[in-house]
Design a protein that fits this description.
It contains 15 helices and 13 strands. With about 400 residues, the chain is α+β, with helices and mostly antiparallel strands. It is elongated, with a radius of gyration of 30 Å. Strand 1 and strand 2 form a beta hairpin. Among the domains are: about 100 residues, no CATH class; about 120 residues.
């Protein structure tokens, strides 16, 4: 029975000749302790030149690693790692087969930690695994960064670029998505053009070919960025609508200040933000009543409704005509926020109209953003960008982690 348990533990630690378990005990404090050593006269391979060499003593102090639990009790591995003498390279320290350099956890423990990190907040996982969250953060960073650094961009052809809030105080991260594979390939701090330019540099460094990029979908703040001369840069229609909706909101707030019945418009102006197709009959009646009572807001609302008709166009030619009519209306609306929005749309006209060529949107970003928001909740133990970005990669990056497989 003991030999079978020994084989189980050796398999768990990936021990092979000449490594072996020399002692195992359960101590009163409620933890299992396993001692690992190598057989006398064992032959090794020099970690530098690859030549066959013999053991030359061991390190002076015993090291301890936290291993996966045994029967729900914490398990610790004790070992004085052997040293070897190479005639060419001198004295060298051998690594244990179950360790990762500079880590106090075994490879199997780290693999299990990564497995449950995708489905559990880090603070809760720290309690279950009975270790501190800083250690889990370190494990997450290592394996995610290892996979991210190894990933190449030579097969990337379509991109979607979006931003999402990091934490309170208007702190954002820019997320770059491979639209074809529906996976996050880069996360950058901030949301300005420099974040996208940083990705462009990484793209080149990782064998990405800018000439292979056929389309890029993004918002207006990044529309001047062009990763490829051959790519169709498309302004996402949801961001275009947001520009016009923000103008509507400004008009509504201004008219609210001018009118005696401020409370009525304040309570009802959220109705103007709901897409027309999603309004109930009662909401439509309320919207019409508000439009008559507050003519400026009503006029701005009709412009927003016309934007939906613009995006209903089926051909690029008819879309351009509709865009010009919409722009002219906004410019002559005598509503300053709408006139400002019209200037913004005019500047980006070409990239807005590209939508009618490829019908691309950042809808995929909305799907991934829901995963990112879940990652944010799981990353409550992290206080820095690095932790948040690592969690985004883990849940939405479809990474090939190089951890030791738990289930074989």
């Amino acid at each position: 029975m003991f030999n079978n348990i020994n084989k189980l533990l050796e398999s768990s630690l990936q021990l092979e000749e000449p490594w072996k378990i020399t002692h195992a005990e359960f101590k009163e404090e409620g933890a299992a302790h396993i001692t690992v050593d190598v057989k006398k006269g064992a032959q090794f391979v020099c970690p530098e030149c690859g030549g066959e060499i013999k053991r030359y003593g061991h390190e002076p102090n015993e090291r301890v690693w936290r291993h996966a639990d045994i029967c729900f009790f914490p398990c610790y591995i004790h070992c004085k790692r052997p040293r070897v003498m190479c005639p060419h390279c001198g004295v060298k320290q051998m690594d244990a087969p179950f360790e990762r350099k500079n880590s106090h956890f075994t490879l199997q423990f780290e693999s299990y930690a990564m497995l449950i990190l995708t489905d559990m907040p880090i603070e809760r996982e720290a309690k279950i695994l009975r270790c501190d969250d800083k250690s889990l953060t370190s494990i997450l960073h290592y394996w995610v960064n290892d996979a991210v650094e190894k990933r190449q961009f030579n097969d990337v052809t379509t991109l979607a670029i979006d931003e999402t809030s990091f934490k309170k105080g208007h702190q954002y991260v820019t997320v770059v998505i491979d639209s074809e594979k529906r996976s996050v390939i880069d996360v950058e701090p901030g949301k300005d053009k420099s974040a996208v330019e940083n990705f462009a540099n990484k793209f080149t460094e990782k064998n990405g070919d800018k000439n292979n990029i056929t389309s890029v979908t993004c918002d207006m703040s990044k529309s001047l960025f062009s990763i490829s001369q051959h790519a169709d840069l498309t302004i996402d229609k949801f961001h275009v609508k947001q520009i016009v909706l923000n103008a509507l909101d400004e008009v509504s707030k201004a008219e609210q200040k001018e009118n005696e019945n401020k409370l009525v418009l304040f309570r009802g102006r959220r109705l103007f933000m709901i897409p027309e197709k999603k309004l109930t009959a009662a909401q439509i009646a309320s919207t019409n009543a508000l439009s008559k009572a507050y003519p400026k807001t009503g006029r701005a609302y009709r412009i927003v409704s016309s934007l939906n008709l613009f995006y209903a166009c089926e051909a690029n030619e008819t879309a351009e005509i509709a865009f010009n009519k919409l722009h002219s209306w906004m410019r002559r609306s005598r509503l300053e926020p709408m006139k400002t929005a019209a200037q913004t749309l005019k500047i980006h006209k070409h990239n807005i109209l590209n939508y009618f060529k490829n019908r691309l949107t950042n809808a995929i970003c909305e799907d991934i953003n829901s995963m990112i928001q879940a990652a944010k909740r799981k990353a409550r133990g992290f206080q820095a960008f690095l932790g948040f970005s690592s969690m985004i990669y883990l849940v939405a990056g479809k990474l090939q982690l190089n951890c030791t497989p738990i289930f074989r």
